[in-house]
Amino acid sequence: MALCLATTLTHVVLVFLHVAPPNAVSKRYGPQINAWVYPLFEQNWRLFAPDPDSVNRRILARTARTAPDGATQVSSWVDLTAVDNSAVKHNVFPSHTTQNLLRRAWTSYVDTHGADDRTDSDRAVMMQKYLRNIAADRVAAHDQGATFGFIQLRVLTLPVAAQGAAAGNRPPTPAEERLLPWWKVTPRGN
Predict the structure, then answer these.
(1) Does the predicted model carry a pTM greater than 0.90?
(2) Residue 41 Cα distances to 14, 16, 18, 91, 131, angstroms
(3) Which bin fits 126, alpha (ψ -120 to 50), beta or left (φ > 0)?
(4) Cβ distance 106 to 131 under 8 Å?
(5) Partners of 183 in the beta sheet?
(6) 153 touches 131 (CB < 8 A)
(7) Does residue 29 lie in a domain region?
(8) Residue 58 pLDDT more than 80?
């Protein structure tokens, strides 16, 4: 009982310090507070002021493995977004996780890495591992447990047309493509 009460009190204090205006305590213990809050207890105002996506993204993955003869075998691209969409399309009660896990992982990755794919902080490293592990799990499930040592992601981004805009009056917008570097995948997913 005491442990439960202490944990609850610690959680409330740390979340309060995270959402409170900057002060001496939150400045001094910022890394420890963020380590507790992210990624499980992230605070944002999207519930009250959602920011709908203004783009359509397709996240694709391919894998590579070393064959017994030493040659590298690269798979074809798997459209992870299409797999998620098909899991939601005819489901009467679709999972929030199925709908948003990959999309939110990508958004968090971009927020921490920018356009150069460099990991400059512990949070950036964590978000890279998070995205890599989600993609590796999805590809392994899609390929019935196929083994691979590396994974690469490609993200295609296409802007959503403004509501009410006449389709014939605007030039087509080309898709933006982002190819991430190859990431090593271990059997345990780390």
Answers:
(1) no
(2) 10, 11, 10, 28, 18
(3) alpha
(4) yes
(5) 151
(6) yes
(7) yes
(8) yes
